[in-house]
Amino acid sequence: MSGRDHTVAGRLSGPGNRSWPDSSGRFGAFGGQFIPETLTAAVQQLADAYRAACDDPAFWNELDVYLADYAGRPSPLYYATRLTDRLGGARIFLKREDLNHTGAHKINNTLGQALLTTRMGKPRVIAETGAGQHGVATATAAACFGLDCVVYMGAEDIRRQALNVFRMELLGAKVVSVESGQKTLKDAINETLRDWMSSSDTTHYLIGSVMGPHPFPMIVRDFQSVIGRETRAQMRAQHSCLPDVVIACVGGGSNAAGVFSPFEDDADVRLIGVEAAGEGVGKGLHAATILAGAPGVLHGMHTYVLQDADGQTSPVHSVSAGLDYPGVGPEHSHWHETGRVEYVATDDKQALEAFSMLCETEGIIPALESAHAIAHAIELAPTLPKQANIVVNLSGRGDKDVVEVARLLGRDVSA
Amino acid sequence: MSNNRIDRVFSRLKATGRTGLLPYITGGYPNLDATVALLRSLSSCGASVIEVGFPFSDSIADGPVIQDSFHRALSNGLKVEHLFEAVATARRDVDVALVAMVSCSIIDRIGLKEFVDRSATAGFDGLIVPDVPLEEAQRFVEETERVHLKNIMLVASSTPPDRSAGIAAMSSGFLYQIAVAGTTGERASIANNLPGHIAQLRSHCNLPICVGFGIGNPEQVAEVAQFADGVIVGSAIVRRITQAVDKGSPMEKWIESVTGYVTQMVAAT
What we know:
The complex is a heterodimer of chains A (415) and B (269). Chain A is α/β, with parallel strands linked by helices. Helix content of chain A is 43%, strand content 17%. A six-stranded mixed β-sheet of chain A has the order 3-4-14-9-10-13, with helices on both faces. In chain A, strands 7-6-5-8 form a four-stranded parallel β-sheet, with helices on both faces. In chain A, helix 6 links the parallel strand 5 (124-129) and strand 6 (148-154). In chain A, helix 10 packs across helix 12 (254-260). Residues 1-9 of chain A have low confidence and may be disordered. Helix content of chain B is 49%, strand content 14%. Chain B has a nine-stranded parallel β-sheet with strand order 5-4-3-2-1-9-8-7-6, sandwiched between helices. In chain B, helix 9 links the parallel strand 7 (175-178) and strand 8 (209-212). The longest helix of chain B is centred in the C-terminal third of the chain and has 18 residues, at 251-268. Classes of the chains: A alpha/beta (415), B alpha/beta (269). The A-B interface holds A 24, 32-38, 40-42, 180-181, 186-187, 190, 193-194, 197-198, 200-201, 295-300, 302, 305, 307, 309-313 and B 56-61, 63-64, 67-68, 71, 74, 79-80, 103-110, 130-133, 135-136, 153-156, 158-160, 163, 167, 178, 180-183.
């Protein structure tokens, strides 16, 4: 298969080889299936279909072709020399997920799930989207596989992200405005689950992150783990070593789970997840779920959540719409409890500074989500020796964010 | 005979060959005084069990009518504590069986043990937690039993027979059959396959079987009453409350009208 010929690591995609989750869909104390009975048959069917796909090399061979020839994988691992020199510490490498088709890591998951959808014989996919990145990646994969596609998006987000709405429509998707609750991402997830309650016979819920009821967190992690597998092989091939530190931003946590999980057993590799501190934890609204939240139930999973004392979901904020979520994937909660991954938070201001620094030093405009991970690397690199290697997962490109950044910097870029 | 009001009411219904009517109201909606007044009014119009929904910010199983009632109640600052107080107030002069319908998100935050204690103290007779699956149910069974509450679980038409047998084994009071594949809310018709599902369910379940989701008028109640032990009506009631409130109707007046509607449905059983 042509996809396999292009890769540094042999096969690009592959099922997870991790011991988690257990047979009940738990990552330690977290995960599970907290869903109405109406959805139980649908998630069971999905788990069965995914298990069958895991045992079938033809599935992964086919996915490899799409990842290579359609999405443009493998993505490069780039040594950011000018950023490294500016900081005067550890060497910084960027895993260039921003160079994938559609400009982010999201396509790794949507291609995998779209292929799984065709295997289940379902003609329709539904998805939630916040800022529109997962919606665009889903609409793209749906067009590529000839699937009907409906994307639920909060009315508030539709107003803020009109260009992505049009992009999804160009790709043949129907975008449904969600008017309930706070009219943002969490409400879009609720609405997609409600659609799925009545449509699961013909429809797959193409979820966008390592969240929701089992088996979604496992499936999305596995489809994203191509990032970490490539990173491992590229570091080995180019530098004959593994990285000392891997940094990724965490909203729902799919890019982080994808780059972290292949390093989970490498005890010497520090893994750092960067949450969005928004206006500042303790100062204002934020989305630092692990750092400032507590275990609870949301969207079908037991995980860290931001809730009030009655279990009602708290309002969240981040300059980055992709990190603006009051929950986090259950495997991250597990990694936090076991200490395998360190979680830190970066506020809006630090993320914007990192955004500008990467633009100026490397000629790369990062997504505001990824800028959170860059910001932590900027803080960490000067404290480490020059021979240390930091990999930052540059999960997406920032073209989508330039209008918002201009607004925040007080610049008028209207035509 | 059991002291639990849910057991008593279904024994009475069985002895008289009747089907129960189980109205659902959103707790604290449009306000706590209305909840107390509604519980009093509905308890004297022949309702067998009243379900009180605890508003939740992110309910997956509910359609637009109940979601909207949740959102409005929460926007008014409703807290779980206030709802327990209102139910306790109504319980002083209301003897109808009361069931709390509440998301696992709320119970997990407050703590299961504390939540069931407070439910029992407030005067509830049972608990429905629609987002707790069979696999997680054991601790709910144990905690509700400790305070003599019923643990009422749901089965869907898509639930395989061995699984519904497992759910029935974990349930007490009654079993809740979901009538539609979808969220709560009124539907034009009752699914053709529903009587068949109930018949199959009875082969491995001795509990009363109540049917809810999508049933909203006396004709549908009469149809479902032919094969169910109880009929649950929710969105149709909440929608009438919302319409009355939005028109500025005085509370006494709309409670009378909603109670009249429930009375019609009781008559249809």
